[in-house]
Amino acid sequence: SLIFLNIDKSLAYDERHLNQIKTLNACVKCDLSKSDLRKLNAKEARLVHADLSESNLAVGDFRSAILVKANLRKSDLTAAKLNFANLQEANLEKSILHHTILKHANLKGAKLRKAALTKANLAGANLARTNLTKAVLRKVNMKGANLTGSNFRKSFLHGVNLSGANLTRADFTDAKIENVWFVDALFCQTKMPWGLEAPQCK
After folding, report:
1. What is the pTM of this model?
2. Coil, strand, or helix at residue 166?
3. b/e map of 99-128 (b: 16 or more CB within 10 Å)?
4. HEC states along 23-69?
5. If I label 151, which of 11, 15, 44, 93 is the partner at 20 to 30 A Cα–Cα?
6. Do 47 and 28 form a contact (C-beta atoms < 8 A)?
7. Phi/psi of residue 46, nearest 5 degrees
8. Helix runs in the chain, H state only
9. 125 touches 145 (CB < 8 A)
10. Which among 23, 48, 72, 49 is positioned nearest to 60, based on CA atoms?
11. Distance between CA atoms of residues 189 and 191, nearest Å
12. Tens digits of residue pLDDT in 99-108
């Protein structure tokens, strides 16, 4: 008779890769997808090209971690700390970023398409050329953030603080904007839902 083993996918990640983070504070190109890593301490960890997609990373500590080109698609980063983390060109599509701290994080060229951000703190973050199409942002702090060339097409922004943000060549075409603060924000060839702001600037 045949015996079928039902292997839980949530336990399918390589335990050795997790041990690498815990002992060496580094795991380049490691696979920790679909895993429960709540409260993981990865402060200053080197996780370049790491696959953390569909993982629960809630309340994790990733302060100053290097997550360049990491795959965080559909991950849950609720209340995670990512201050000063390097997430350049990381994939955060459809990720959950509720109460997530990303102050002064580097998200240049990152993908946040269809991501959900509620009360996240991205003050002073670098979001240049970041893709936020169809993302939902509620009460997000983006004060002083660099949004140069970022894409907010068809996104939803409610109660977002963009005071002092650099919106040079940012694209908000077809975005829904409600109660958003633009105090001292820099507009320069910025595409807004109502048209082009500061078209003559250089």
Report:
1. 0.90
2. strand
3. ebbbbbbbbbbbbbbbbbbbebbbbbbbbb
4. HHCECCCCECCCCECCCCECCCCECCCCECCCCECCCCECCCCECCC
5. 44
6. yes
7. -100, 105
8. 15-24
9. yes
10. 72
11. 6
12. 999 999 999 9
Contact 20/1 with Cβ under 8 angstroms? no
Beta bridge partners of 51: 31, 71
Task: Write out pLDDT tens, residues 111-139.
Answer: 999 999 999 999 999 999 999 999 999 99
Tell me which amino acid residue 158 is. Answer: H
- Maximum pairwise Cα distance, the chain: 77
Determine the residue type at 89: E
The letter for the amino acid at 175 is A
d(CA 189, CA 80): 34
CB under 8 A, 24+ apart: contacts of 30-37: 33/71, 34/9, 34/10, 35/10, 35/11, 36/10
Task: Please report where in the chains the tokens 């660099």 appear, as a residue.
Answer: 146
Q: Quickly tell me which residue has 């990512």 as its tokens.
A: 82
Q: Letter for the amino acid at 168?
A: T
* Structure tokens that stand for 114 in this block: 């269809």
**If you search the block for the tokens 């068809």, which residue do you land on?**
154
